[in-house]
Ice-binding protein C-terminal domain-containing protein (Pseudoduganella armeniaca), 183 residues
Amino acid sequence: MESYMLKKLLPVALLALTAATAQATERTWTWTYQGFYNQASAKFDPSFKVSGTFTGDDLNRDGTISLQELTSFEMGYYTADACANEYGAHCYVDAFSFSSDRKLAFKSRHYYIDDGPFSSGTYITTGEKVMQWGYFGPTETYTWTDQTKLTLVQLPVPEPSTYAMFGAGMLVLAGLRARRKAQ
């Protein structure tokens, strides 16, 4: 009788253990905004684009990834908050929101400051403008229009660890072997 109950309880215990160890997974998206009005040329530039990636998890399950739930933000060669120092690259995300209806809004800035006269940077406020400046050239400002398009691609969620899957498979095989021996 005791053996019979143990056999019934073991699959339930394994299922409970699997559910208990499941973790919320951060998601990563690539984003591209393309097609802006160039203020210097006074023309729409369909080829101008800004792009990057972000990673986050909707921890409070309100349907939006906020700045506090953002774990990584990259634009071009820069990763936010990973490059701040006195001289050199500075990268910040001042505001961020990504909703379940695929609306992305952020305010970011990255710039390079040299100890000499050479510096450059990009400021972006989605829905408003992209401003690029540099020591050797004029500041270029591109503004959003109705033709500015957002492309979002969610990167695949990583598969479970190979070793974890191997271990789970070995446990199942050991259980089947023990069951056959008991019969």
Summary: Residues 27-182 form one domain.
